[in-house]
Amino acid sequence: QVQLVESGGGLVQAGDSLRLSCSASGSRFKINAMGWYRRAPGKPRELVAAITRSGNTNYADSVKGRFTISRDNAKNTVYLQMSSLKPEDTAVYYCAAESGGSYYPNDYWGQGTQVTVSS
Q1: Beta-carbon neighbour count of residue 98 at 10 Å?
Q2: Which letter does DSSP use for residue 113 in this model?
């Protein structure tokens, strides 16, 4: 089984930056795609960004140019650098991973971390 542990959420002001981290552990097989989803109050969960083991990325249109996803394969860790944050970015952010290479990883999930952006 794979465990995903997120960190880095918090309360920031509009225009600020924040970095989320997610570390995977607990399984010997390699994780391929990793990514971040978010769920805002009253809205469905949406993919924010994903990255394959080889470094190919996919972003939601709403975060392109503001968020950057990256990973450290040796540490099985994925990062989400968020810049120019907006109040509409407020949500619970979930890390996800899978052994496949899709742009919508969803085999394993973290517990979520709250990001709140005040105006």
Answers
A1: 19
A2: E
